[in-house]
Design a protein that fits this description.
The protein has 336 residues and is mainly α. It has 17 helices and no strands. Helix 2 (20-36) runs antiparallel to helix 3 (40-57), helix 6 (103-119) runs antiparallel to helix 7 (123-139) and helix 16 (305-322) runs antiparallel to helix 17.
Length: 336
């Protein structure tokens, strides 16, 4: 009979070799094992791990369900530490689904979780919540608060913290994203390269891929299209191989944008179509809007104006519903 220690080791090894689908399976086995043996602490701990992996692989609706179950169970059993973890896991996946639209809902979860992390002096979780808050602030264009969160997270980083390289890579990744948003491309490149380096040292393949996509976005912003396309192609191949839907969706979106600029129009159409399919499958609202706009622009270049108009009008409708002012302005420009 397989022991809990063996089950968790298999899950951990799968996660660190990029096989997140297997990790999901084995963390589910760990949850069931603990449940069957009356081990509530173990059940909730591995439920937390399961929600994280589901988010990373792009099983977002499943991650919401897992995190919600974790939150309900933690509250029922009055286990504050697991309620804190559940708040973080739920906030994390909601930020992936719709970072702008769900921010006001997510922010109290993060504030509550950070308060508990500070009270219980769990440094890993303090950094985790600070980086999630930074992520939310970046998407809501509150760049000063985002930077303050990342500065505070950096103060807490040390080699003695649990999983320090993962946390350091996460901070660098978010600093790169922040610098990209404020058009400081030199700093964005530096932080993206640092995120890639630390993620490689940590050996977690999907974190490396995620950091590489930020570097590709920096190259795109600086009109280094060939260099960016090379990065994205490599990540996309890996994402498809491991079935990382979340990473693949971002890679395909960028691949479509770059291919259109490089006049690789067959690739641009296929990539933008795949990006749209994955965004809809995962129900990531803003990614759907961006993918509709990307594919619509490919159709315009191909002089398929009726198809282009339909796609852009779909993006316009969603942008109005979600109050995405920037995307709405782009649809008006394209339809003019």
């Amino acid at each position: 009979m397989t022991t809990l220690r063996e089950i968790v080791k298999i899950a951990w090894d799968a996660e660190h070799h990029g096989d997140l689908e297997s990790a999901v399976y084995w963390y589910k086995e760990a949850v069931n094992f603990c449940n069957g043996n009356g081990d509530t602490d173990g059940e909730l701990m591995y439920m937390s791990n399961l929600a994280e992996i589901q988010s990373r692989i792009g099983q977002l609706q499943e991650a919401v369900e897992t995190a919600t179950r974790l939150l309900v169970s933690a509250r029922k059993n009055r286990l504050e530490i697991y309620e804190m973890r559940a708040s973080g896991r739920l906030a994390e996946v909601l930020l992936l689904i719709d970072p702008r639209g769900r921010w006001e809902e997510v922010k109290p979860l993060l504030q509550s979780g950070l308060k508990t992390a500070k009270q219980t002096e769990t440094t890993y979780w303090q950094i985790y919540f600070l980086t999630l808050m930074a992520q939310g602030y970046i998407h809501s264009k509150n760049f000063n608060d985002a930077y303050a969160c990342l500065q505070e997270a950096t103060i807490h980083l040390s080699p003695t913290v649990d999983d320090p390289k993962h946390l350091q890579s996460r901070v660098f990744w978010l600093l790169a994203l922040l610098m990209l948003e404020v058009y400081n491309y030199s700093e964005a490149r530096t932080y993206a390269e640092q995120a890639i380096g630390v993620a490689k040292e940590d050996g977690v393949l999907d974190f490396v891929a995620k950091a590489q996509l930020i570097l590709a976005q920096v190259e795109l912003a600086q009109e280094q299209f060939v260099e960016a396309f090379g990065i994205v192609e490599s990540v996309n191949i890996q994402a498809k191989s491991f079935r990382w839907k979340l990473v693949e969706q971002t890679a395909e979106y960028l691949r479509g944008e770059l291919a259109r600029r490089l006049n690789y129009l067959d690739i641009a159409e296929a990539a933008s179509s795949r990006s749209l399919f994955l965004a809809r499958e995962m129900k990531t609202v803003e990614n759907e809007v961006k993918s509709l706009l990307g594919l619509g622009q490919v159709m315009l270049v191909l002089h398929r104006r009726e198809e282009a108009s339909d796609l852009i009008m779909q993006a316009q409708k969603l942008s109005q519903e979600q109050n995405y002012g920037d995307h709405l302005a782009k649809t008006i420009e394209l339809l003019d």
